[in-house]
Amino acid sequence: MSGLRIGVVTFPGSLDDVDAQRAVRIGGNEAVALWHGDHDLQGVDAVVLPGGFSYGDYLRCGAISRFSPVMTEVIEAAGRGLPVLGICNGFQILCESHLLPGALIRNDHRKFACLDQRVRIENNHTPWTSSYADGGEITIVLKNGEGSYVADTETLDRLEGEGRVVARYVGENPNGSQRHIAGITNERGNVVGLMPHPEHAVEDLCGPGTDGLGFFTSLAAQVLS
Amino acid sequence: MARVVVDVMLKPEILDPQGKAVQGALPRLGFSGVSDVRQGKRFELEIDGDATDETLARVHEIAETLLSNPVIEDYAVHVEGGSASAKHRA
Prior knowledge:
The structure holds 2 protein chains of 2 kinds.
Chain A: E1 5-10, H1 17-26, E2 30-35, E3 46-49, H2 69-79, E4 84-87, H3 89-96, E5 103-105, E6 113-121, E7 137-144, E8 148-150, H4 153-161, E9 165-169, E10 181-185, E11 191-194, H5 214-224
Chain B: E1 2-10, H1 17-28, E2 40-47, H2 53-67, E3 73-79, E4 85-88
Antiparallel strand pairs in B: 1-2, 1-3, 3-4
């Protein structure tokens, strides 16, 4: 085990921070709890922005979290290449922070989605997906009310053309996301936003299996290689 | 004191599921003839002093930075009781 230190931010209203910390540990790394109100990343090697309803989803999902003290540090560090993974609400925060293009709006079918979702990994060159086979399909948990990914055509074409669609829904579109997009990365490839939850699929006992574990072992694998 | 109002609406090309839900409820309540509903947000900002050009420039900055997400929303600023009005479409 390489023992990387991976920070998990807790915002007011985060739900999946403890699950994300657990997934980090099961993935063989050290989980470091980070607090939204601190201007401090505690020297971590990577950051996870977990799922939930930070600030009660007031105004827009992720809109207020974006201006929290810790996000100033995350945005600055991401610019220097620090690996950042935003899951669900974390993905929304990354879009609101303009670290990723586009936005996430209410599901087109107007219902909260909660299901085991088949997803195809289409870019395994990011620090978060290198454990997966290119084009490999995994089943992880999808649970969101506002998970429909939207961007203008030009942005979507650029994401596709540059291989920045990291994960895509397989089968029926679960939330109306354009081009079935489940996750994307930035130009540099260090920031990844993902709507479904890999941290809920890391143990056989609960959840749909262990397909999500790769997101938490990839960093170590990349550092070791 | 001046009251400056910022209206935020989803861009026309962005699907509005909430508006659709409201529209869907109308016929059930016996209201017919409404072909579309779009839901937006209205912010009322109480400003110290008069609504000067400088103040309004600040309000535009607030609207652009926090009140709206230019990726999916447009906003419009107007002074309540005044004639100054400016729409912004990113």
